Amino acid sequence: MPAANRHVGEIRTPSTALGGVTVRVPAKVNLQLAVGPLREDGYHDLVNVFHAVSLFDEVTATEPADPGAGPITVKVLGESADEVPLGEDNLAVRAAKALAAAAGRTYRADLLIRKTIPVAGGMAGGSADAAGALVACNELWGLGLPREDLMEIAADLGSDVPFALLGGTAIGTGRGERLTPLETSGTFHWVFALAEGGLSTPRVYGECDRLRAAAEAGVPEPAASEPLLAALRTGDAEALGRALANDLQPAALSLRPDLARTLDAGRALGALGAIVSGSGPTCAFLARSGEHAAELATRLADSGVCRSAVTAVGPVEGAALVP
Questions:
Q1: Continuous segment of H or E residues that includes residue 253
Q2: Distance (Å, rounded) from C-alpha 63 to C-alpha 140?
Q3: Other beta carbons within 10 Å of 80
Q4: Is there a catalytic annotation at residue 160?
Q5: How far apart are CA 171 and CA 22, in angstroms?
Q6: Quick count: other Cβ atoms within 10 Å of Cβ 230?
Q7: Where do the structural domains in the chain lie, given as residue ranges?
Q8: Residue 123 marked as a ligand binder
Q9: Is the pLDDT of residue 215 over 50?
Q10: Which family does it belong to (predicted)?
Q11: What is the value of pTM for the model shown?
Q12: Cα–Cα distance between 229 and 234 in angstroms, integer?
C-alpha cells in the first residue's frame, strides 16, 4: 500500500475530553477532473484524481448537553461559519443520522465543527465535515464499524465524502465515489487563493453542460491522464503542474470571470501549475518548494486578486481521530 494511504484502518486512541471525540479531516484539491457526457439520471461519469491537503476541519461529537434538544445538533465556528447551513441541510448532521440508521438505533449527539476549509470553495469542506461526523459518532456511540462500512455510508451521502475518509491521493470513478489509491512519491507544496463568496456545485455543472451544448461538440468519455499519474508516481512537481486539468474550469470562469485574473497572477508569479479547485471558486497553485509557496501566498494576497491565500502540503491522511 502506498505510504500516503497507510492510515486507512489505522487504530488510534481518541480524544475523549468532556466525553467528546474529535476527528481531524482534510480538504481536497482535484488534480484532474474529467467530466463525461450528461447521463439520463442527471449525473456525469467522472474520472477524478483527488489529493488531500493540509487544510483541516475538526469535528467534535459529544453527548448532548440539553436532554430536550433534537437527536443531532450542530454548531459551527471558524472560516465562514455563518455560511454553513444548520439542521437537516447540514451534511454532517445527515451523516450522523445515516450512521444511526445503519446501526438500527436512535442515537443522540452534539456536533461542533471548527472550520478552516473554505465554504462552497471547491475543496469539499462539507463532505469533509460529513466524514468527520461519521468517524466521531462511530467512536462516541461505541459502534465499532470498520472503515469499509463507513465508506459505504459515505458514498450515499455524496461523491466526495468517501475520499475525505480515505485521504492520500486516489482516483475516483463513477460519480467519483469509487476510489482506488494512487502511488505517490514525495510531498507537493500548494497555495490556495480563497475568493469572496462561493460557487454552487450544481450551478457549475449546469453551466458546463450549457457551454458544451452551445459548442455543439461531442463530449468524450472521461479518462485518466497518464502524464499526471506518472508525475505523481515519480514526485515530479513540474510535470504535475503541466498536467493539472479540470473540465469544470471553463464553467467556473464563465460564472466568475474574476477568477481568470487570479489564475494569471499565480502563473506570473512562477507557479508550476494553476487550476480552479473542483467547482471553484478557490484557485490552486503548485509551488516549487515550501519557501516558494510562502512567497507566492504573500504576493497573491498583496496583489488584491483574492481575499486571502494559504499554504498547504499534500498528500495527507484522511479523517483521523485526534489523540
A1: helix 249-255
A2: 8
A3: 17
A4: yes
A5: 28
A6: 13
A7: 3-183, 188-314
A8: yes
A9: yes
A10: Belongs to the GHMP kinase family. IspE subfamily.
A11: 0.89
A12: 9
Q: Which residues pair with 78 in a beta bridge?
A: 115
Which one from 57, 110, 129, 160 is the annotated catalytic residue?
160
Q: What is the pLDDT of residues 138-197, one digit of tens each?
A: 999 999 999 999 999 999 998 899 999 999 999 999 877 789 999 999 999 999 999 988
What stretch of H or E contains 238? helix 237-243
CB atoms within 10 A of CB 91: 22
pLDDT digit string (tens) for 256-307? 999 999 999 999 999 999 999 999 999 999 999 999 999 999 999 999 999 9
Helix (H/G/I), strand (E/B), else coil: 296: helix
Bridge partner residues of 189 (DSSP): 287, 313
Task: Name, in order, each residue with C-beta under 8 angstroms of 68's C-beta and a sequence gap of 6 or more.
Answer: none
Q: Are 52 and 27 in contact (CB under 8 A)?
A: yes
* 3-state percent breakdown (helix, strand, coil) of the chain, nearest 5: 35, 30, 35
Within this chain, domains 3-183 and 188-314 share the same CATH topology? no
Which residue of the set 28, 57, 110, 115 is catalytic? 28
Q: Which cell is 294 given? A: 510562502
Neighbours of 283 (CB within 10 A): 30
- Please name which of 273, 275, 281, 277 lies closest in space to residue 254, comparing C-alpha atoms: 281
- Rounded to whole angstroms, the Cα distance separating 176 from 65 reads 37
168 labelled binding-site residue: no
Q: Domain 3-183 carries which CATH code?
A: 3.30.230.10
* CA–CA dist 117, 219 (Å, integer): 32
**Do the annotations mark residue 124 as ligand-binding?**
yes
Residue 277 annotated as binding site: no
Q: Which fold has domain 188-314?
A: Alpha-Beta Plaits (3.30.70)
